């Protein structure tokens, strides 16, 4: 490995306190939210302006060291895990909200702004920023865009991409560009902003984001349904979709997850239930009443033993907040928790659930399942120990089989976490060689010197 | 030079692994919030601890300083979905920092020796120091020193805080509370812990606690010679003395009560102490002579509001002065002990009292043991933040159930010329009761 470059020159430009190379500073930046992945960087750089990002890029170019952009480091596919000898480019201090446009219903935020801050600001003005990834309390908008994050409301409101109207990006050569704008319609040339959404930091560094907001729905109903099996819950979801109802949330938890979430949140979840569906509908009060009733009927028809309505808004909020912590609460059960996010067409949910259970049994691994059933996005979560090599091998095989199942059912290996490092080996299973080559071509065009997060998504 | 980090390695490795670095602790950590640097965050600190255990990082000065930059407020524990026991790892780390002596200087050694091994290990020494200090403050000496400008020889932190410090109690707890006090109708029997700082500065809170327990039909046993609970020692890297003090307290309570069996509860009224007292079982788990007794102790240990909530808080009828009160949560009561609703319930049992919630009531005020002395800058910024939230409630009283917070808030309020009164929830209840608001008439 080449010796790390001399960072003094860059430090002089950014300020010495903004370039960190001490071991005590590098270790805490050697990982993100992904289990069992870590790598020490050569330096961590803190920036507050796009010009500084450009300086880092020029320095990286001159010294041939890769740059890994990072927000709050909550990603779940290793997208912001450092690479050997790299600079971690940390945007968390670039966190101002620059503009709130009440007439056009947009927010312009710097990349490091926290998702929750954006959501709260919108809420205070009677508006809604719908994408709500599990880590929204600390995740950054820039990170959300780079990973095209989803969340609990995906089935009705879509994902981060659907709310990005404009972006400021810094390219690998240090050019600063603005892409998109406030026009609802805009077909002047390629929609280049879309190229950067979900690009996982491999094509450019996102520094500002213009976000679209929608009016906050006036009414909401939250239902909790208990099912005797995972499959019956999955069937109920398919039936709700087939009945042409679009709830804003259809979240699913299996027994293992229910117990862990309850241990953390203590909100009185039924710990003996085999499966739970958290169903939420929002919109016009009359429509909401109607949909809630229909969902209850459909749930019961598919075997729900009990369906209850959240009495107050606080109770509803507690339920969805508890659900948001499902992933982390599973860490109560095992030292290493590996979260997947396979997604299938919603008609295939029951089949996928069945196959996951079968795979778990055959490989003798423990898997907790929860997820956003409404958009077909499941989170089979491996409960294991990274220090147990034999078990990790079984986890690996089981994981591969689950991906194969999902792809065979017409699904995808990742619905919302991105490929990063964790799913890189499985990408060829998902996209054709031609598609992969096109991706590589794009990467080479925008980043010919291979500086931006190289080796993520695919090998260059 | 660098020693093997004994305490950290002694912990079960899965405790360190339990942190899956999801980042949910970041938004609640005051030091991360202020700096946006991961080394100042819970998951960053755990990563450093793990690196030390793995041998990837030596027990460096930077690590040591990091461990003392952490407030130990445990807000991360409340936020952690994975249930990581940060407190235990934090205590082990500080212990290792102390045994490595990377931070040792002669001045620091002397201060630690005086505080940890003399004053807060020998209750009589502490009270003696209290008496001396009281005499000093009541004498003409402070004024004379000021006029002769001799105070400039004082260390800067003494000069900074001395004028704003709360007065010492006129009487200490042993002068205010009998060893055994019995109510007219006796339903419960409880042990009472009077604390060190509570005793020196706020002994009346102890009296109020006993009174309120008597009102709730509890016979109260208060051992005369109580030791410091040992939290100061545990949080400052001396688990050994901490264990000695725990044993001493258990024995003192047993001596007075006959056995711990005969007690329905053991009461603490200081959030910081209570949080540590509840962990005696963990602390003494390797001591065969004390393991079971410590377990019993921990099971019975209750914060006063928690205990009252359990047996049913008696409502006081209205008839007194209307009061606007806000509640500041002691970190170690709300995060350490997860007691959050009970003190509010106690306050709301006073009919004339209106409770106004402040923003960020669970955010640390910067007191954090002796943090305001060791990290004055960070502590001051936290205090400022707290004072702003206090002020915007328009309350005239702030209730706080931990003497450390009370001191910090009193100093902050006095320095900024604000007139809010800081007091313990039990004192508000006891005062209302003494005004003749008898719960039997409610």
Molecular structure report:
The complex is a heterodimer of chains A (460) and B (442). Chain A has 460 residues and is an alpha+beta fold. Among the domains of chain A are: 8-90, 2-Layer Sandwich (Uridine Diphospho-n-acetylenolpyruvylglucosamine Reductase, domain 2); 97-215, Uridine Diphospho-n-acetylenolpyruvylglucosamine Reductase, domain 3 (2-Layer Sandwich), CATH 3.30.465; 219-328, 2-Layer Sandwich (Alpha-Beta Plaits), CATH 3.30.70.3450. Helix content of chain A is 35%, strand content 21%. Chain A has 16 helices and 18 strands. In chain A, strand 5 (97-101) and strand 6 form a beta hairpin. The radius of gyration of chain A is 22 Å and the shape is globular. Chain B has 442 residues and is α/β, with parallel strands linked by helices. Helix content of chain B is 53%, strand content 8%. Chain B is built from 25 helices and nine strands. A five-stranded mixed sheet of chain B has the order 1-3-2-4-5. A four-stranded parallel sheet of chain B has the order 7-6-8-9, with helices on both faces. The longest helix of chain B is centred in the middle third of the chain and has 19 residues, at 197-215. The N and C termini of chain B lie far apart (67 Å). The model of chain B has no long low-confidence stretch (mean pLDDT 91).
Strand and helix layout:
The complex is a heterodimer of chains A (460) and B (442).
Chain A: H1 8-14, E1 19-20, H2 23-26, E2 43-46, H3 50-63, E3 67-70, E4 87-90, E5 97-101, E6 106-110, H4 115-124, E7 127-128, H5 141-147, H6 154-157, E8 164-170, E9 176-180, H7 193-196, E10 205-212, E11 214-215, E12 219-227, H8 230-242, E13 249-254, H9 255-265, E14 275-283, H10 285-301, E15 306-309, H11 313-324, H12 326-329, E16 336-339, H13 349-363, E17 366-372, E18 377-384, H14 389-408, H15 427-430, H16 433-446
Parallel strand pairs in A: 2-4, 3-4
Antiparallel strand pairs in A: 1-2, 5-6, 6-10, 7-11, 8-9, 8-10, 12-14, 12-15, 13-14, 13-17, 16-18, 17-18
Helix pairs in contact in A: 8-10, 8-13, 13-14
Chain B: H1 6-10, H2 13-17, H3 30-35, H4 42-54, H5 61-69, H6 75-79, H7 86-100, H8 106-119, H9 123-138, H10 141-147, H11 156-161, H12 173-176, E1 180-181, E2 188-192, H13 197-215, E3 218-221, H14 231-235, H15 239-257, E4 265-268, H16 271-277, H17 280-283, H18 291-300, E5 301-303, H19 304-311, E6 323-328, H20 331-336, H21 341-348, E7 353-356, H22 371-374, H23 376-392, E8 397-400, H24 403-415, E9 421-423, H25 425-434
Parallel strand pairs in B: 2-3, 2-4, 4-5, 6-7, 6-8, 8-9
Antiparallel strand pairs in B: 1-3
Helix pairs in contact in B: 5-7, 13-25, 19-21, 21-25, 23-24
